[in-house]
Amino acid sequence: MTRDDSDRDDPGSEPVTDGGTEAAGADDVALDPWGSSTVSDYRKLFAEFGIEEFDEILEEVPNPHYLMRRGVIFGHRDYRPVAKAMREGEEFAALSGFMPTGDPHIGHKLVFDEIIWHQQQGGDAYALIADLEAHSARGLSWDEIDEHSRNYLLSLLALGFDPDEGELYRQSDNREVQDLAFELGAEANFSEMGAIYDFDGETDISHMQSVVTQMADILYPQLEEPKPTVIPVGPDQDPHMRLARDLASRMRFFGVTRAYAGFGLEDEERVILDDLYADLTDEPTDAGEDADPLRCEDAAEALRESRDRYESPGCDPATVDALAEKLENAGKEPLRPRTRFLDRNATEEAFEALIDAVEGEKRVYDEHVDSFELSREAAEELAREVELDHGGYGFLPPSSIYHRFMTGLTGGKMSSSIPASHISLLDDPEDGYDKVKSATTGGRATAEEQREKGGKADECPVYELYAYLLAGDDDEFAKEVYDECVGGERLCGGCKEQAAELMEAFLEDHQEKRAEWEEKIDELDIDLDSDRKRQ
């Protein structure tokens, strides 16, 4: 949910869960999977990185998780195919990995809950131990990795992950993941890694290898067959998602796009030509519909004569010139909308099969096929079908959802290296109680001032505990705590006492369930005792 600062003292307003627009001590928007885990302004992610607001698709999600309803899950990339699969009872998957670098804490619980919820909605659920990444990027020994891996899995299972219906694995033991990583590595290069992750000449090869292994993890649920797949992550992991989506596309036999003539188009050129074509023909631009006769050279002349109309803000004038030149060079070729199949990695046999499979009017070129009757959606389906029939992967671009980071109990970011800032899922319940009682709050300087002005719940780590965890699925309770705080009815002492008691009860229950799984974990199909050389 979004709100501005003017709502903060309105007792009837909806609660937000990001600790305000900017968290204390937060970093600028620089997404680093191995560095900072804070974001100073989540709104910048929409503009700078193309992450979409989750609120816009919330109504499309059946039975949304409370983290979605409360805005803790604030953004997504291409989540609609997953939501559609849920609504229609089709196959989908959810996967996330855990780098075993310390004890699991309440911040990690967000991802545990997201994987478990997707499993409960009927998805194929995958949870992996990113041990190769922990060893290469963080330098942990295999003994440390084994100990932490066990603790992560016990908490995941205690929170509700069903190992009989899902899959648990560690990167180092999954040969299919490693083989896929090798294939994906052929589609990436060092320059790209440097641009995305700031790798340089001092970066070790194992660290780079761990990246393509993570790409293989993300695509692993689609090895048997393509299916919508969501990866729940924090926004710092978005560089991985962007690369994974690019690699999924590069591995495809065919690309599908829209075109108007034999030449290719850049994205900005296509937008301009869409408008130009509509203006010149007064016809829809969807492929498969007849259009009035129009020649490329005529369109070039019209574009040059009215170029101001098509130079939108932010559009490089050189783009208009480049498009006009392409149209002019195409001469008298008819300008007609069509759906184009691009040959990316197809075998000769697969390309010939695609040509045969495209029915109706078409035009065949050396490296692409144009259909004048197929919609883009139908073309995507046909291209994937031909690819799968000829040994390709047919990957769908993986989706992602993004959750806000929890504020540390001491203010600033929650950090595993600062014990007082977080509550470990392994903490003694009494210690959890004490940490909450000692936590920073968004309260006023005095009780009198708080009653008069209300508390600042949007900036309060304790309120976040209610919204993210302690209120569970009870939205009314979370809203009640918020409204009482900002309305001045709830004072920090009583609020922290209630939160501390709830935290203590949660840890007691969680650790009882961990103990139950401790007796059964060795029966699971995952090796928690690495036989690798000890370092």
UniProtKB/TrEMBL annotation:
Residue stretches in coiled coil: 496-534
Enzyme Commission number(s) from the entry: 6.1.1.2
GO molecular function: ATP binding; tryptophan-tRNA ligase activity
Subcellular localization(s) per the UniProt record: Cytoplasm
Motif window: 'HIGH' region: 100-108
Sequence ranges of Basic and acidic residues compositional bias: 1-11, 446-455
Catalytic activity: tRNA(Trp) + L-tryptophan + ATP = L-tryptophyl-tRNA(Trp) + AMP + diphosphate + H(+)
Main location: cytoplasm
InterPro entries hit by this protein: aa-tRNA-synth_Ic, Rossmann-like_a/b/a_fold, Trp-tRNA-ligase, Tryptophan-tRNA-ligase_arc
Described function: Catalyzes the attachment of tryptophan to tRNA(Trp).
Protein name (record): Tryptophan--tRNA ligase
Protein's gene: trpS
